[in-house]
């Protein structure tokens, strides 16, 4: 009798434990936003200097704010929001020859996932101090030469970007800027036209500020947001960072994965030998530019020239 009572009691305890566990852990998991939904970061208001500042969030019609708190990595919150848009509906089911219902395939190529990043909170990441020192050395060489030989172009160099502004752009683009590019933007946030001068160029491409990089990336993704066979041979892929433009639809880009420098041509090509020479990084581009300016040499077939105090580049005679 005693053993029977003990067995019954143990059975009751096991049943009670299972019931308690079921009550605690049986809640439905929160719905996860996947690639089936289009999720992006609303544009935070931007101050005249190009920085994102706290303030009301403006989203496109039909979008829903799902979270409006993030940290810039320095302990402070900023005013922006994650926004979710409903994915486009697929075509209605159709019937095949057997009469069984089936779903029609969407038209067109698959979307470029690099052009539709998941929303994420901006995080300020300081570049490696070694990269900062190396980049600043090359910029100092370029600045000295411009000041002495091309003062009109020298005056177009903008002041430094803010680390928070770079972090917002990285979050909106879903990319990490290489440390040498980040250090360069923290030295000169692009170049601004001054009078007749178009701004400091790498080859024929005027260097862009952080906002210009982000806006060009969005525009290029809007034009060609489809996946190709190879991101380094297609005309455009969302993993590229457009750091300069020539105003004719051509862009100087950095591959955010391999970090080398390439050119995207408006006629539909992408190559990674500007001037017929490989340029392994943004720092290498700065160093090669400084070398060409100081020596009167060239970068591949591109040779720097000065006219009326302005720097430009021309193709060397064969």
Would you kindly provide a written description of the structure presented here, covering whatever features stand out?
With 318 residues, this protein is an alpha+beta fold. The chain is 30% helix and 18% strand. The protein is built from 7 helices and 15 strands. The protein has helices at residues 2-25, 129-149, 151-154, 163-173, 179-185, 210-223, 282-295; strands at residues 38-41, 64-67, 70-71, 77-78, 82-85, 94-95, 101-102, 201-202, 205-207, 240-245, 251-255, 261-265, 269-271, 302-307, 310-315. The strands form 5 sheets. It has a 6-stranded antiparallel β-sheet with strand order 8-9-10-11-12-13, sandwiched between helices. A 3-stranded antiparallel β-sheet has the order 1-5-2, with no helix packed on it. The protein is globular and about 50 Å long. The termini are far apart.
Question: What topology does this entry show?
Answer:
Blueprint: H1 2-25, E1 38-41, E2 64-67, E3 70-71, E4 77-78, E5 82-85, E6 94-95, E7 101-102, H2 129-149, H3 151-154, H4 163-173, H5 179-185, E8 201-202, E9 205-207, H6 210-223, E10 240-245, E11 251-255, E12 261-265, E13 269-271, H7 282-295, E14 302-307, E15 310-315
Antiparallel strand pairs: 1-5, 2-5, 3-4, 6-7, 8-9, 9-10, 10-11, 11-12, 12-13, 14-15
Helix pairs in contact: 2-5, 2-7, 4-6
Task: Please outline what is shown here.
This protein has helices at 2-25, 129-149, 151-154, 163-173, 179-185, 210-223, 282-295; strands at residues 38-41, 64-67, 70-71, 77-78, 82-85, 94-95, 101-102, 201-202, 205-207, 240-245, 251-255, 261-265, 269-271, 302-307, 310-315.
